[in-house]
Amino acid sequence: MDRINPALNHTNFDITTLVHIYLQSFESLIMKRFKGFILVGLALLAGLPMASAQFWLGARGGINLANMSTNTAGAVDNRIMGIHGGVTTRLQLTKKFSAGADALFSQFGNNQKIVIEGGGSNITTETKNTISYALVPLYINYEMPIRSKDLVPYRVKESYVSAHLYGGGYFGYALGVNQAITTTTITGDQTTVTNAEGKLVSSTYSPVDFGIMAGAGFSFRLDEEKRQRMALDFRYFMGFGDFDKSDAGKATNTPLAISLSYQYKLTKRIYTNRKRF
Q: Per residue in 262-273, pLDDT tens?
C-alpha cells in the first residue's frame, strides 16, 4: 500500500501546506541529483593521470601597473607602478593542461586626482595609495607548443617555445598601506604645494581582497632534458573585494601585471604511453 503523507491525511489543509510539501519534495530531488553530480566529479578527478603529473617549482617577479575602480565624485584614478615577487608552482596534469599557484608579495593601489575650482582658487589634490598584499593566485593553464619543424625541419625537431593561456582566481591580504598626498593651491599668481606622507590607518580599509584573474604569455625551454623553463606573462586582475570601509565609498583593484618566471621540474614522467612534454 502507498504511504500517505500525514499532512494530507486531513480534509482541512490549506494551500500553504500543499506548497510546502511540494517544495520539500523538490528540494529532496535536487539534493539527490546534486549528490550524483558530486560523485561523478570525484570519479572524473580520480581518473586523472595524477600518478604521472609533473611538479614544477620556481620563482616569479615583475611589475604591476596598478589601479583601482572607485566611486569618488569628480576623481580621476590613474595607474601607479608597483612590484611583485615570490614563489610559483605548477602541476602538469596532461600535455597541454596544468594547474598553477603562486605565493607573492604584490603592490596594488592607485593615484587619485581631484581638482576643485572656485573662489578664485584652484586646488588639486593627488593621493597615491600603495597597498602591499600577500597574494595567492590559483589558475588553470593551457599550453600550445609553437612548432618549429615547419620553419627549419632539418635542424630543429622539437618545440622550444610555447604560448599559454590561463585563468582562475586570487586571494589577497593587505599587509599595509602607504599614502602620499600632494596638494597644489593656485590663487592668482601664487602657487602653494604641500606634501604629506604616512601609513593609512587600518580601521579605514578592508585588508581582504579576492577576485578573478586571466593571463597569457610565452614559455621557453632552457635545456635538452626538459627540466627548466622560463616564461613571460601578462596578467589582468579584477577584484571583487571593497577596499574602502566607509558606507558611501567603494574601491576595487584592477591591476595589470607583467612578470618573468623560472621553473624547474622536480618530478619525472613515469609512464611511456604518451609523448614527453
A: 999 998 654 444
How many other β-carbons are positioned within 10 Å of the β-carbon of residue 103? 13
Q: What pLDDT is stored for residue 50 in this prediction?
A: 52
Closest alpha carbon to 109 in 141, 87, 137, 81? 81
Three-state SS letters, the chain? CCCCCHHHCCCCCCHHHHHHHHHHHHHHHHHHHHHHHHHHHHHHHHCCCHHHCEEEEEEEEEEEEECEEECCCCEEEECEEEEEEEEEEEEECCCCEEEEEEEEEEEEEEEEEEEEEECCEEEEEEEEEEEEEEEEEEEEEEEEEECCCCCCCCCCCCCCEEEEEEEEEEEEEEEEEEEEEEEEEEECCEEEEEEEEEECCHHHECCEEEEEEEEEEEEEECCCCCCEEEEEEEEEEEECCCCECCCCCCEEECCEEEEEEEEEECCCCCCCCCCCC
How far is 220 from 162, CA to CA, in rounded Å? 7
With a CB cutoff of 8 Å and minimum separation 6, the contacts of 218 are: 161, 162, 163, 164, 231, 232
Residue 145: partners with Cβ closer than 8 Å, 6 or more residues away: 159, 161, 162
| Partners of 117 in beta bridges | 122
Q: Measured between alpha carbons, how far is 39 from 16 in angstroms, rounded to an integer?
A: 35
Q: Are 257 and 63 in contact (CB under 8 A)?
A: yes
Is the pTM here over 0.85, yes or no? no
With vertex at residue 248, the alpha carbon angle to CA 244 and CA 250, rounded to the nearest 5 degrees, is: 40
Summarised one tens digit per residue, pLDDT across range 156-188 is: 556 789 999 999 999 999 999 999 999 999 998
Report yes or no: 199 and 229 within 8 Å, Cβ to Cβ.
no
